[in-house]
Protein backbone atom coordinates (compact mmCIF):
# COMPACT_ATOMS: atom_id res chain seq x y z
CA UNK A 1 0.00 0.00 0.00
CA UNK A 2 1.12 3.55 -0.64
CA UNK A 3 2.92 5.16 2.30
CA UNK A 4 1.34 8.56 1.56
CA UNK A 5 -2.14 7.58 0.43
CA UNK A 6 -4.58 4.75 0.00
CA UNK A 7 -4.34 1.88 -2.45
CA UNK A 8 -1.82 0.33 -4.79
CA UNK A 9 0.74 2.90 -6.05
CA UNK A 10 0.90 1.01 -9.35
CA UNK A 11 -2.75 1.88 -9.94
CA UNK A 12 -2.43 5.59 -9.20
CA UNK A 13 -4.20 7.89 -11.65
CA UNK A 14 -4.97 11.54 -12.07
CA UNK A 15 -8.14 12.88 -10.49
CA UNK A 16 -10.76 12.84 -13.29
CA UNK A 17 -11.83 16.22 -14.61
CA UNK A 18 -15.44 15.42 -13.70
CA UNK A 19 -14.46 15.08 -10.03
CA UNK A 20 -12.40 18.28 -10.14
CA UNK A 21 -15.41 20.09 -11.55
CA UNK A 22 -17.65 18.56 -8.89
CA UNK A 23 -15.30 19.76 -6.13
CA UNK A 24 -15.35 23.23 -7.62
CA UNK A 25 -19.14 23.25 -7.90
CA UNK A 26 -19.63 22.02 -4.33
CA UNK A 27 -16.84 23.87 -2.52
CA UNK A 28 -15.99 26.74 -4.81
CA UNK A 29 -12.31 25.78 -4.94
CA UNK A 30 -10.02 24.31 -7.52
CA UNK A 31 -8.06 21.12 -6.86
CA UNK A 32 -4.50 21.89 -7.94
CA UNK A 33 -2.02 19.08 -8.39
CA UNK A 34 -0.18 18.68 -5.08
CA UNK A 35 2.23 15.75 -5.30
CA UNK A 36 3.38 14.17 -2.07
CA UNK A 37 6.88 14.58 -0.76
CA UNK A 38 9.15 11.73 -1.79
CA UNK A 39 9.62 8.92 0.69
CA UNK A 40 13.30 9.80 1.00
CA UNK A 41 12.52 13.42 1.91
CA UNK A 42 10.18 12.63 4.81
CA UNK A 43 11.64 14.19 7.96
CA UNK A 44 12.16 11.69 10.79
CA UNK A 45 13.48 12.17 14.33
CA UNK A 46 16.73 10.41 15.21
CA UNK A 47 16.46 6.85 16.52
CA UNK A 48 16.13 7.24 20.28
CA UNK A 49 16.79 3.61 21.25
CA UNK A 50 20.41 2.91 22.28
CA UNK A 51 22.34 0.13 20.52
CA UNK A 52 22.22 -2.26 23.52
CA UNK A 53 18.42 -2.08 23.55
CA UNK A 54 18.22 -2.63 19.79
CA UNK A 55 20.49 -5.64 20.26
CA UNK A 56 18.17 -6.99 22.97
CA UNK A 57 15.20 -6.66 20.61
CA UNK A 58 17.17 -8.47 17.90
CA UNK A 59 18.06 -11.26 20.30
CA UNK A 60 14.34 -11.99 20.71
CA UNK A 61 13.00 -11.49 17.18
CA UNK A 62 16.18 -12.07 15.19
CA UNK A 63 18.47 -9.41 13.65
CA UNK A 64 16.64 -9.56 10.30
CA UNK A 65 13.38 -8.63 12.01
CA UNK A 66 14.45 -5.43 13.78
CA UNK A 67 14.40 -2.60 11.25
CA UNK A 68 15.59 0.97 11.68
CA UNK A 69 15.84 1.96 8.02
CA UNK A 70 14.31 5.21 6.84
CA UNK A 71 11.80 3.41 4.62
CA UNK A 72 10.66 0.95 7.31
CA UNK A 73 10.08 3.76 9.79
CA UNK A 74 8.16 5.87 7.25
CA UNK A 75 5.92 2.96 6.25
CA UNK A 76 5.01 2.37 9.90
CA UNK A 77 4.23 5.99 10.72
CA UNK A 78 0.60 6.82 11.50
CA UNK A 79 -2.46 5.40 9.76
CA UNK A 80 -4.74 6.44 6.91
CA UNK A 81 -6.95 9.17 8.35
CA UNK A 82 -7.08 12.45 6.44
CA UNK A 83 -4.90 14.27 9.03
CA UNK A 84 -2.42 11.37 8.95
CA UNK A 85 -2.15 11.45 5.17
CA UNK A 86 -1.89 15.22 4.90
CA UNK A 87 1.02 15.26 7.35
CA UNK A 88 2.76 12.42 5.54
CA UNK A 89 2.27 14.03 2.14
CA UNK A 90 3.87 17.18 3.57
CA UNK A 91 6.92 15.16 4.63
CA UNK A 92 6.19 15.27 8.38
CA UNK A 93 7.33 12.00 9.94
CA UNK A 94 7.67 13.30 13.49
CA UNK A 95 5.59 10.41 14.89
CA UNK A 96 7.79 7.72 13.35
CA UNK A 97 8.74 4.74 15.53
CA UNK A 98 12.39 4.31 16.42
CA UNK A 99 12.34 0.72 15.19
CA UNK A 100 10.05 -1.78 13.51
CA UNK A 101 10.06 -5.24 15.08
CA UNK A 102 8.48 -8.29 13.42
CA UNK A 103 7.94 -11.15 15.89
CA UNK A 104 7.43 -14.68 14.62
CA UNK A 105 5.52 -16.29 17.48
CA UNK A 106 3.36 -15.67 20.52
CA UNK A 107 6.37 -16.32 22.73
CA UNK A 108 8.40 -13.66 20.93
CA UNK A 109 5.58 -11.13 21.28
CA UNK A 110 5.38 -11.81 25.01
CA UNK A 111 9.14 -11.53 25.45
CA UNK A 112 9.26 -8.27 23.48
CA UNK A 113 6.46 -6.77 25.57
CA UNK A 114 8.23 -7.78 28.78
CA UNK A 115 11.49 -6.20 27.61
CA UNK A 116 9.80 -3.00 26.46
CA UNK A 117 7.88 -2.73 29.73
CA UNK A 118 11.10 -3.08 31.72
CA UNK A 119 12.89 -0.52 29.54
CA UNK A 120 9.97 1.96 29.31
CA UNK A 121 9.61 1.61 25.54
CA UNK A 122 6.17 2.27 24.05
CA UNK A 123 4.83 -0.49 21.79
CA UNK A 124 2.40 0.19 18.93
CA UNK A 125 0.87 -3.00 17.44
CA UNK A 126 0.80 -2.68 13.64
CA UNK A 127 -1.37 -4.78 11.32
CA UNK A 128 -2.34 -3.37 7.95
CA UNK A 129 -1.71 0.27 8.87
CA UNK A 130 -5.28 1.26 7.96
CA UNK A 131 -6.26 2.93 11.25
CA UNK A 132 -8.25 6.16 10.85
CA UNK A 133 -8.56 6.99 14.57
CA UNK A 134 -4.97 7.88 15.44
CA UNK A 135 -4.27 4.44 16.86
CA UNK A 136 -0.78 4.17 15.34
CA UNK A 137 0.79 7.33 16.80
CA UNK A 138 2.33 6.83 20.24
CA UNK A 139 2.90 9.60 22.77
CA UNK A 140 6.62 9.66 23.59
CA UNK A 141 6.32 11.50 26.90
CA UNK A 142 7.66 9.32 29.70
CA UNK A 143 9.07 6.69 27.36
CA UNK A 144 12.62 5.95 26.26
CA UNK A 145 11.41 5.31 22.72
CA UNK A 146 8.75 3.75 20.51
CA UNK A 147 8.65 0.55 18.47
CA UNK A 148 6.10 -0.54 15.88
CA UNK A 149 5.28 -4.20 16.49
CA UNK A 150 4.50 -5.43 12.97
CA UNK A 151 2.52 -8.69 13.17
CA UNK A 152 2.88 -9.51 9.47
CA UNK A 153 4.84 -12.72 10.14
CA UNK A 154 1.95 -14.13 12.18
CA UNK A 155 -0.22 -14.81 9.15
CA UNK A 156 -1.49 -18.40 9.26
CA UNK A 157 -4.87 -20.05 9.23
CA UNK A 158 -4.06 -22.54 11.99
CA UNK A 159 -7.14 -24.75 11.95
CA UNK A 160 -10.73 -25.05 10.76
CA UNK A 161 -13.41 -26.86 12.76
CA UNK A 162 -16.12 -27.48 10.16
CA UNK A 163 -18.39 -29.06 12.76
CA UNK A 164 -18.34 -26.12 15.18
CA UNK A 165 -17.88 -23.61 12.32
CA UNK A 166 -14.92 -21.98 14.06
CA UNK A 167 -11.54 -21.18 12.50
CA UNK A 168 -8.32 -20.34 14.34
CA UNK A 169 -6.21 -17.56 12.83
CA UNK A 170 -3.05 -15.64 13.57
CA UNK A 171 -3.54 -11.85 13.78
CA UNK A 172 -1.34 -10.70 10.90
CA UNK A 173 -3.32 -12.52 8.21
CA UNK A 174 -4.78 -10.03 5.76
CA UNK A 175 -8.50 -10.24 5.07
CA UNK A 176 -8.33 -11.20 1.34
CA UNK A 177 -5.91 -14.05 2.11
CA UNK A 178 -8.13 -15.22 4.97
CA UNK A 179 -11.10 -15.36 2.60
CA UNK A 180 -9.03 -17.23 0.01
CA UNK A 181 -7.96 -19.84 2.55
CA UNK A 182 -11.48 -20.24 3.93
CA UNK A 183 -12.93 -20.56 0.43
CA UNK A 184 -10.97 -23.80 0.10
CA UNK A 185 -13.22 -25.15 2.86
CA UNK A 186 -16.40 -23.64 1.39
CA UNK A 187 -16.46 -21.02 4.16
CA UNK A 188 -16.34 -17.24 4.60
CA UNK A 189 -16.05 -14.70 7.40
CA UNK A 190 -18.36 -12.30 5.60
CA UNK A 191 -16.50 -9.22 6.85
CA UNK A 192 -15.80 -6.62 4.17
CA UNK A 193 -15.03 -3.13 5.51
CA UNK A 194 -13.55 -0.40 3.33
CA UNK A 195 -10.10 -1.37 4.62
CA UNK A 196 -10.64 -5.00 3.54
CA UNK A 197 -7.92 -5.12 0.90
CA UNK A 198 -5.11 -4.28 3.34
CA UNK A 199 -6.39 -4.77 6.91
CA UNK A 200 -5.56 -7.74 9.12
CA UNK A 201 -7.78 -9.93 11.27
CA UNK A 202 -6.05 -8.80 14.46
CA UNK A 203 -6.66 -5.21 13.44
CA UNK A 204 -10.34 -5.94 12.86
CA UNK A 205 -10.62 -7.20 16.45
CA UNK A 206 -8.52 -4.45 18.03
CA UNK A 207 -10.57 -1.79 16.21
CA UNK A 208 -13.97 -3.49 16.68
CA UNK A 209 -14.42 -3.27 12.93
CA UNK A 210 -17.72 -2.98 11.13
CA UNK A 211 -18.11 -3.82 7.45
CA UNK A 212 -20.54 -3.40 4.60
CA UNK A 213 -22.10 -6.82 5.29
CA UNK A 214 -22.43 -6.27 9.05
CA UNK A 215 -26.21 -5.85 8.81
CA UNK A 216 -26.39 -9.58 8.12
CA UNK A 217 -23.15 -11.11 9.37
CA UNK A 218 -22.69 -8.81 12.36
CA UNK A 219 -19.71 -6.69 13.30
CA UNK A 220 -16.33 -8.34 13.65
CA UNK A 221 -16.62 -8.54 17.44
CA UNK A 222 -19.75 -10.66 16.94
CA UNK A 223 -17.58 -13.22 15.13
CA UNK A 224 -14.93 -13.51 17.86
CA UNK A 225 -15.42 -16.73 19.80
CA UNK A 226 -12.10 -16.44 21.62
CA UNK A 227 -8.67 -14.89 21.46
CA UNK A 228 -5.18 -15.10 22.93
CA UNK A 229 -3.60 -11.96 24.33
CA UNK A 230 0.09 -11.47 25.06
CA UNK A 231 0.91 -8.99 27.83
CA UNK A 232 4.11 -8.03 29.68
CA UNK A 233 2.83 -10.08 32.63
CA UNK A 234 1.86 -13.22 30.74
CA UNK A 235 -0.79 -14.73 28.50
CA UNK A 236 -4.57 -14.38 28.65
CA UNK A 237 -6.79 -17.00 27.00
CA UNK A 238 -10.24 -15.49 26.60
CA UNK A 239 -13.47 -17.09 25.42
CA UNK A 240 -12.56 -20.76 25.35
CA UNK A 241 -16.15 -21.87 26.04
CA UNK A 242 -18.87 -21.20 23.42
CA UNK A 243 -21.04 -19.42 26.00
CA UNK A 244 -20.60 -18.49 29.63
CA UNK A 245 -22.77 -17.11 32.42
CA UNK A 246 -19.85 -16.72 34.83
CA UNK A 247 -19.19 -13.04 35.30
CA UNK A 248 -18.23 -10.38 32.75
CA UNK A 249 -17.02 -11.23 29.26
CA UNK A 250 -13.36 -10.24 29.33
CA UNK A 251 -13.15 -10.42 25.53
CA UNK A 252 -14.93 -7.07 25.50
CA UNK A 253 -11.93 -5.45 27.20
CA UNK A 254 -9.78 -6.43 24.24
CA UNK A 255 -12.18 -5.91 21.34
CA UNK A 256 -11.90 -2.28 20.30
CA UNK A 257 -9.02 -1.61 22.70
CA UNK A 258 -6.54 -0.65 19.92
CA UNK A 259 -3.87 -2.73 21.68
CA UNK A 260 -4.03 -0.84 24.98
CA UNK A 261 -4.13 -3.98 27.15
CA UNK A 262 -1.92 -6.32 25.17
CA UNK A 263 -1.31 -7.78 21.74
CA UNK A 264 -3.69 -10.27 20.12
CA UNK A 265 -1.70 -13.29 18.93
CA UNK A 266 -4.51 -15.60 17.83
CA UNK A 267 -8.24 -15.40 17.16
CA UNK A 268 -10.95 -18.04 17.06
CA UNK A 269 -13.63 -16.76 14.73
CA UNK A 270 -17.12 -17.87 13.77
CA UNK A 271 -17.30 -18.67 10.04
CA UNK A 272 -20.23 -19.23 7.64
CA UNK A 273 -20.91 -21.31 4.57
CA UNK A 274 -20.32 -19.46 1.31
CA UNK A 275 -23.79 -18.43 0.11
CA UNK A 276 -25.16 -20.14 -2.98
CA UNK A 277 -26.60 -16.90 -4.33
CA UNK A 278 -26.04 -13.18 -3.90
CA UNK A 279 -28.42 -10.49 -5.08
CA UNK A 280 -27.74 -6.77 -4.78
CA UNK A 281 -30.03 -3.91 -5.72
CA UNK A 282 -29.86 -0.14 -5.68
CA UNK A 283 -32.83 2.11 -4.85
CA UNK A 284 -33.14 5.87 -5.07
CA UNK A 285 -35.15 7.95 -2.64
CA UNK A 286 -36.17 11.58 -2.85
CA UNK A 287 -34.66 12.44 0.53
CA UNK A 288 -32.57 11.00 3.32
CA UNK A 289 -35.65 10.96 5.54
CA UNK A 290 -37.54 8.82 3.02
CA UNK A 291 -34.61 6.45 2.70
CA UNK A 292 -34.25 6.26 6.49
CA UNK A 293 -37.90 5.25 6.78
CA UNK A 294 -37.29 2.38 4.36
CA UNK A 295 -34.21 1.26 6.28
CA UNK A 296 -36.16 1.39 9.54
CA UNK A 297 -38.95 -0.71 8.07
CA UNK A 298 -36.49 -3.35 6.89
CA UNK A 299 -34.74 -3.43 10.27
CA UNK A 300 -37.97 -3.72 12.23
CA UNK A 301 -40.10 -5.86 9.94
CA UNK A 302 -37.64 -7.65 7.65
CA UNK A 303 -36.44 -9.26 5.64
CA UNK A 304 -33.14 -7.72 6.80
CA UNK A 305 -30.52 -7.66 4.02
CA UNK A 306 -26.93 -8.73 4.55
CA UNK A 307 -25.83 -5.37 3.12
CA UNK A 308 -27.86 -2.25 3.82
CA UNK A 309 -26.36 1.18 3.18
CA UNK A 310 -28.08 4.51 2.68
CA UNK A 311 -26.11 7.46 1.33
CA UNK A 312 -27.22 11.05 1.76
CA UNK A 313 -27.63 13.39 -1.19
CA UNK A 314 -24.03 14.61 -1.21
CA UNK A 315 -22.45 11.17 -0.90
CA UNK A 316 -24.78 9.86 -3.60
CA UNK A 317 -23.85 12.64 -5.96
CA UNK A 318 -20.11 12.34 -5.37
CA UNK A 319 -20.13 8.54 -5.36
CA UNK A 320 -21.79 8.26 -8.73
CA UNK A 321 -20.13 11.41 -10.12
CA UNK A 322 -23.12 11.92 -12.42
CA UNK A 323 -25.17 14.54 -10.58
CA UNK A 324 -27.17 15.36 -13.70
CA UNK A 325 -28.69 11.86 -13.75
CA UNK A 326 -29.46 11.34 -10.07
CA UNK A 327 -32.84 12.25 -8.65
CA UNK A 328 -34.10 13.67 -11.91
CA UNK A 329 -37.28 11.81 -12.71
CA UNK A 330 -40.61 10.46 -11.58
CA UNK A 331 -42.68 11.36 -8.57
CA UNK A 332 -43.22 8.07 -6.74
CA UNK A 333 -40.85 8.82 -3.88
CA UNK A 334 -38.50 5.96 -4.64
CA UNK A 335 -37.07 4.18 -7.63
CA UNK A 336 -35.35 0.91 -8.25
CA UNK A 337 -31.89 1.24 -9.76
CA UNK A 338 -31.41 -2.39 -10.69
CA UNK A 339 -28.79 -4.87 -9.59
CA UNK A 340 -25.30 -3.81 -8.50
CA UNK A 341 -26.45 -0.38 -7.41
CA UNK A 342 -26.43 1.33 -10.80
CA UNK A 343 -27.92 4.78 -11.26
CA UNK A 344 -30.15 3.86 -14.18
CA UNK A 345 -33.31 1.78 -14.11
CA UNK A 346 -37.02 2.14 -13.69
CA UNK A 347 -38.67 4.72 -11.52
CA UNK A 348 -37.35 8.01 -10.25
CA UNK A 349 -36.47 9.73 -7.05
CA UNK A 350 -39.59 11.78 -6.66
CA UNK A 351 -37.57 14.98 -6.36
CA UNK A 352 -36.73 17.69 -8.80
CA UNK A 353 -33.32 19.27 -8.93
CA UNK A 354 -31.96 17.23 -5.98
CA UNK A 355 -29.43 14.43 -6.06
CA UNK A 356 -31.65 11.85 -4.42
CA UNK A 357 -30.32 9.25 -1.99
CA UNK A 358 -28.98 5.87 -3.02
CA UNK A 359 -29.74 2.79 -0.92
CA UNK A 360 -27.83 -0.43 -1.57
CA UNK A 361 -29.46 -3.65 -0.36
CA UNK A 362 -27.87 -7.06 -0.69
CA UNK A 363 -29.34 -10.47 0.07
CA UNK A 364 -27.35 -13.70 0.34
CA UNK A 365 -28.36 -17.27 0.97
UniProtKB/TrEMBL annotation:
GO BP field? lipid biosynthetic process
Q: Which cofactor does it need?
A: FAD
Q: Which domain of life is it from?
A: Bacteria
Q: Where are stretches of biased composition, namely Gly residues?
A: 327-355
Q: Where is the FAD-binding PCMH-type domain?
A: 93-274
Q: Where along this sequence does the record place binding of FAD? A: 125-131, 258-264
Xref: InterPro entries:
Alkyl-DHAP_Synthase, FAD-bd_oxidored_4_C, FAD-bd_PCMH, FAD-bd_PCMH-like_sf, FAD-bd_PCMH_sub2, Oxid_FAD_bind_N
Question: Residue numbers for the site described as Important for enzyme activity?
Answer: 309
| Keyword entries, A-Z | FAD, Flavoprotein
| GO MF, one annotated term | FAD binding
Region listing for Disordered, in residue ranges: 320-355
Family according to the record: Belongs to the FAD-binding oxidoreductase/transferase type 4 family.
Could you tell me what this protein is called? FAD-binding oxidoreductase
Q: Taxonomic classification, please? A: Bacteria, Bacillati, Actinomycetota, Actinomycetes, Streptosporangiales
